[in-house]
Design goal:
Length: about 290
């Protein structure tokens, strides 16, 4: 079966993993990177190194971008904009939903079609079962290239709005970064009390394993905008986070993170949510005080 040829621009760890996966599945791949030396191993495996961005764009209809952010996208593509007409840009670079919408409009202005992508896994998991990428943009464009894109990861199409894939990706990153920071905060507290990370690990794992129940319950609260205090009350939560804050203060570790949490709880109390579930804090986060 003939496989679609593809261009990949950007050969950081993610870009190299994508090119390698395409090659493993029999796709012809043209590559370009500002530092050409990063392509040597891939060229040895059969990739074609384009001499310029224009040549890379001209080689194939489907262009996969794996760059740091959209500033890098514009820096590379704007000087070569004349070569964009008729191309499909699968932009797997990270940025904000609004910037994704702007990029889609910019691409359309140059005769190209834009698919926003948000890769949900790190480079070592590209091409592995269970990996996935959010996509949004024109449905017909996604459908036409879905089989090729699914060589890299499963494809989770989120809709026509170019910003939606970026929103889902940044939402996922919000959970990841804040969860990992809370874990590091816990480990710092443990170390300050002579408890190594490996001893705290099973208890941290136990706590995270309980989270799906709470996520499901509080999603219902948020979607209904009803925050009953039958299971928990914000007043009790506010007292608890004050105890957390003081525990970290007493241990002499950073209190930046627990202090921020306590401030959000205080804002909820000030809004009159004391007898509501702490899910009512969504109202604070949606409409923070000026």
């Amino acid at each position: 079966m003939s496989r679609q040829s593809v261009t990949v621009i950007g050969l950081g760890p993610m870009g190299r993993a994508m090119v390698s996966t395409f090659l493993d599945h029999g796709h012809e791949v043209t590559v370009w990177n500002r530092t050409a030396g990063k392509a040597e191993e891939l060229v040895a495996r059969g990739a074609v190194l384009a001499p310029s961005v224009e040549a890379a764009l001209g080689a194939n209809e489907l262009i996969v971008l794996s760059l740091t952010d959209y500033d890098a996208v514009y820096a590379l593509l704007e000087p070569a904009a004349d070569a964009l007409s008729g191309k499909v840009i699968a932009n797997l670079s990270s940025d904000t939903p609004d910037r994704a919408r702007e990029a889609a409009a910019w691409a359309a202005g140059h005769g190209a079609k834009h698919l926003t992508g948000g890769v949900q896994v790190p480079p070592p998991l590209i091409g592995r079962p269970g990996s996935s990428t959010y996509y949004s943009g024109p449905k017909d464009v996604f459908d036409a290239h879905e089989d090729t894109l699914k060589v890299l990861t499963d494809a989770d199409y989120r809709g026509e709005d170019a910003g939606l894939a970026a929103m889902y990706y940044q939402a996922q990153m919000t959970i990841f970064w804040t969860t990992m920071l809370s874990y590091y905060q816990t480990l710092a507290l443990g170390q300050a009390n002579g408890v190594p990370a490996k001893e705290l690990l099973p208890y941290a794992t136990m706590m995270t394993s309980m989270m799906p129940h709470f996520l499901e319950l509080y999603a219902e609260h948020v979607d209904s905008a009803d925050y009953p205090g039958d299971v928990d009350r914000l007043a009790m939560g506010a007292a608890s986070v004050e105890h957390v804050l003081h525990t970290h203060q007493d241990a002499g570790v950073s209190t930046v993170l627990p202090a921020a949490v306590a401030e959000i709880f205080k804002a909820g109390m000030d809004r009159g949510f004391a007898e509501n579930s702490f899910s009512s804090l969504i109202e604070v986060l949606k409409r923070p005080a000026v």
